[in-house]
Amino acid sequence: MTTEAQVSDMVLHFQDLLTEFRQSMEEENKFEAAESATGLLDQVQTLDKQRKTFVQRAEHHQEKIELEEAFLVEFNNFNVLWDKNLKEYDDACDVLEIDLAEKHRNEAEELKRSLRVQFPDRPKYSSALHNLKMTKEKMVKHKKYSEARTIQCEIDTKEREEDEKFSKQKRLTAMAQERQLQKRHETEREALGKRIASGREEFQKSRGVESQRLVQRYQNTRIALENKQQIDRQHADKPQIAKYTFKKPNNQHHYSTRGFTRTQHSESHTGYPTR
Q: Are 155 and 139 contacting, i.e. CB atoms less than 8 angstroms apart?
């Protein structure tokens, strides 16, 4: 496949051949042929300029596409990376919440065990009740059943009162300690929730900043590319140097071929073009 550089070389070579042909026609005073060569050279140069403009536009368009595709790939990789980091952060937060919930369950079970130790199933009855029971036993021992029955009624009443007092005290103490534990647990959950929310907010903030930097870098690169392409177009649109002019006859003639200047001696007195 022929490359652009090869095509340019072939066009320049063809222009050189036309230039040399025209100059030879001028030397031979065949001006009609020289004029035809000039017209053909103009056409070649016009077509070559159109070709270069087309190639340049295609290259510029391809450069923009490649820049945009590279940005999209980088932006997609950026989002994939940050999504992965966010998932890892959320997973770590889930572990913290699970660990905290397990800690709270263990502390609640420990409180229940502590309450069972602190408050047995039955209360420790008072010395007064103990004395009543001893008195009842004496009455029974001495067959004083009426007095024993009366004392037993007092015992039952006293036990019921002390049982109710014990149950109430146990219930109130348990409720107070459970509320205190629940309040502490709620405080810990709220603190963890705030830390998680703050970390996620900071994460999203950092992601936004990095995303803006990425977009700004792309925009700067795109502007630099557009400026470069504008300079390329301006350079391509610059008018060419005056093509060929006749000089007064002398015994030498000069012409330029692709930047090289040649000097030839001739017996003809025809002027030769300079490029």
A: no
φ and ψ at residue 253, rounded to 5 degrees? -140, 150
- Tens-digit pLDDT profile for residues 3-37: 777 777 788 888 888 888 889 888 888 888 888 88
Confidence at residue 248, expressed as pLDDT on a 0 to 100 scale: 35
The full length of the chain comes to 275
Residue 146 tokens, joined: 């009426």
Closest CA to 20 of 268, 269, 258, 266: 258
| The pair of three-digit structure tokens given for residue 255, joined into one six-digit string | 């012409």
Q: Measured between alpha carbons, how far apart are the two ends of the chain, in Å?
A: 32
Tokens 């397990």 belong to residue: 102
Q: For position 56, what pLDDT does the model report?
A: 84
Contact 37, 21 (CB under 8 A): yes
Residue pair 47/8 in contact (Cβ under 8 Å)? The answer is: no
Task: Name, in order, each residue with C-beta under 8 angstroms of 135's C-beta and a sequence gap of 6 or more.
Answer: 151
Alpha-carbon gap, residue 55 to 49, rounded angstroms: 10
pLDDT tens, residue by residue, 200-234: 999 999 999 999 999 999 999 999 999 998 888 88
Please say whether the beta carbons of 113 and 177 come within 8 A: no
Q: What residues contact residue 253 under an 8 Å CB cut-off, 6+ apart?
A: 23, 27, 247, 263, 264, 266, 270, 271, 272
Radius of gyration of the chain (CA): 53
pLDDT band at 89; cut points 50, 70, 90: very high
**Residue 254 and residue 236 in contact, taking contact as beta carbons nearer than 8 Å:** no
Cα 272 to Cα 275: distance, rounded to the nearest angstrom:
10
